[in-house]
Amino acid sequence: MAQEYDVVILGGGTGGYVAAIRATQLGLKTAIVEKDKLGGTCLHKGCIPSKALLRSAEMYTQAKQATDFGVEVGEVNLNFTVVQQRKESIVEQLHKGVQGLIKKGKIDVYNGIGRILGPSIFSPMPGTISVEMADGSENEMLIPTNVLIATGSQPRTIEGIHVDGQIVMTSDHILELEHLPASILIIGGGVIGIEWASMLADFGVEVTVLEAGERILPTEDEDISSEMEKLLIKRGIKIEKKVQLKINTLQVTNDQVSVEAESDDNMKSFTAQKMLISVGRTGNSSGIGTENTEIIVENSYIQVNDFFQTKESHIYAIGDVIGGVQLAHVASHEGVLAVEHMAGLKTVPLAYDNIARCIYSYPEAASVGLTEKQASARGYTVKVGKFPFKGIGKALVNGNAEGFVKVIADEQSNDVLGVHMIGPHVTDMISEAALGILLNATPWELGATIHPHPSLSEVIGEAALAVDGRAIHF
After folding, report:
1. Which end of the chain is more exposed for a tag (fewer CB within 10 A), N or C?
2. Minimum mean pLDDT among 68-77, 115-124, 392-401: which range?
């Protein structure tokens, strides 16, 4: 028998389950269709497990540096089996938490693959969901007033390179490593590639990053990209830029992979025990029935308006599957706004420039707003302030004073346009800058905020004051 709902959500990842919880708060009868586990990529194959591994890598490095602080710990060894067990334990604890939230919200969950049907006996409009149940039982038919597509994304691969999951891997596979390789080639110097490069280098792996573009972290401010490259190279990570792989030279054996690449008209050979393909992600838009609707899909991404409606106004889409800013916290906010719009609440389009972005490498990087190049391209006359962590007492006390904070402001309005950070704990500090941009703060207002001393956050106030040449400690 067909079940009726106010909203059916395809995908129980971060965007999907948060949207479901908000929908029930608004009194909407809600169901989630999820083919795997609630929590999606972020919880099981992305944000959480990778950050758990990064934390272990950080602790391993800190333990080896303990003598610099007068702490003698003897020989430091890494037990990678325990590292992986800790990661799995954290994921499982959070998974149980998500399940508890769904149960508390009395949200129905269908474990299977949901597909959107065209007009049928169930509805004159497309949108009925046929669920192919994972346990092999008879398909369930769900009749929703609204549909929310939150099917996420998967790692993009390179045509001509076979990903076997053992020697040649994506970010999904490398999370399950049982043993660390002696060496690895990372194809792609974006956020995911740089996080893995940093982590594996801390674990003692010889890392080479091959980037096709002119710089790593191409979406970040150029000063951040340059500083990150310098500090990664200082730690022994090899970085090759403007590299074009010669796919036909790729050779994979049971214990290594080799490939040739052209850089500045010079051919170079690279060999390692493993290869990680990290060249972006592609939307999970196929196999869900979009062809039965008027929904427009371009390059795997579903096209939506400012309120996340597709060409079918009662079918919405959010998160990685619509492209744009592919971050878990973005998907969550998109999901909330989408269901609020379904419920008839007044909503305001999401201001993507105000969303903070974080890179959890060592050093960390974080940013919000426009880069200096973007601000200039939009016609702003910019003024810039920078302040290094080496001028901050707490950074020296902590033993990590590399990096800086950069504040970009509009010379005419004096509004802060962007804040970019690289250094210790900047992923925890970026929200102050994001709030400042949300409230149209000026550099003076950020600088006039009294930051506690000693604290790392002092660097934000100093960088803001530096915009007008008023920094105190440098």
Report:
1. N
2. 115-124
Residue 265 has pLDDT above 80, yes or no: no
* Helix-strand-coil split of the chain, %, nearest 5: 35, 25, 40
**What pLDDT, on the 0 to 100 scale, is given for residue 124?**
78
Q: Is the dihedral of CA 298, 300, 302, 306 positive or negative?
A: negative
Cis peptide leading into residue 363 (ω within 30°): yes
Q: 420 an active-site residue?
A: no
Give the pLDDT of residue 159: 94
Q: Token pair for residue 316?
A: 């919405």
Of residues 318 and 2, the one with the higher pLDDT is 318
What would the two tokens of residue 454 be?
């000693």
Count the Cβ atoms, other than its own, within 10 Å of residue 98: 20
Taking each helix axis from N to C end, the angle separating 80-104 and 47-64, rounded to the nearest 10 degrees, works out to 140
Q: What is the largest distance, in Å, between two alpha-carbon atoms of the chain?
A: 75
- Between CA 461 and CA 448 the distance in angstroms is 7
- No. of helices (H) and no. of strands (E), the chain: 13, 23
Please state, in angstroms and as integers, the Cα–Cα distance from residue 239 to each residue in 107, 186, 198, 263, following that order. Answer: 48, 9, 12, 12
Report the chain's mean pLDDT, rounded to a whole number. 96
- The order of strands in the sheet holding 183-187 is 168-169, 274-277, 183-187, 206-210, 238-240
- What's the pLDDT at 92? 97
Phi, psi (deg, nearest 5) at residue 251 = -130, 130
Instruction: Please list, in sequence order, all residues whose beta carbon lies within 8 angstroms of the beta carbon of residue 314, skipping any fewer than 6 positions away.
Output: 125, 127, 145, 146, 147
**CA–CA dist 164, 331 (Å, integer):** 30
Burial of 174 (0-12, 13-18, 19+ CB in 10 A): buried
Which pair of tokens denotes residue 164? 């076997």
Query: What's the whole-model pTM score?
Result: 0.95
Type of residue numbered 178: E
Active-site annotation holder among 314, 420, 425, 453: 453
pLDDT confidence of residue 120: 78
Contact 443, 356 (CB under 8 A): no
Q: What is the pLDDT of residues 327-371, one digit of tens each?
A: 999 999 999 999 999 999 999 999 999 999 999 999 999 999 999
Domain annotation for the chain: domains and CATH numbers: 3-154+282-342 (3.50.50.60), 168-279 (3.50.50.60), 363-466 (3.30.390.30)
**In b/e form, how buried is each residue of 186-208, taking b as 16+ CB within 10 angstroms?**
bbbbbbbbbbbbbbbbbbebbbb
Buried b (16+ CB within 10 A) or exposed e, 446-474: bbeeebeeeebbbbbbbbbbbbeeebeee
Residues in the chain: 474
The predicted-structure confidence for 312-321, as pLDDT tens digits, reads as follows 999 999 999 9
Question: Residue 331's CB: how many other CB atoms inside 10 A?
Answer: 29
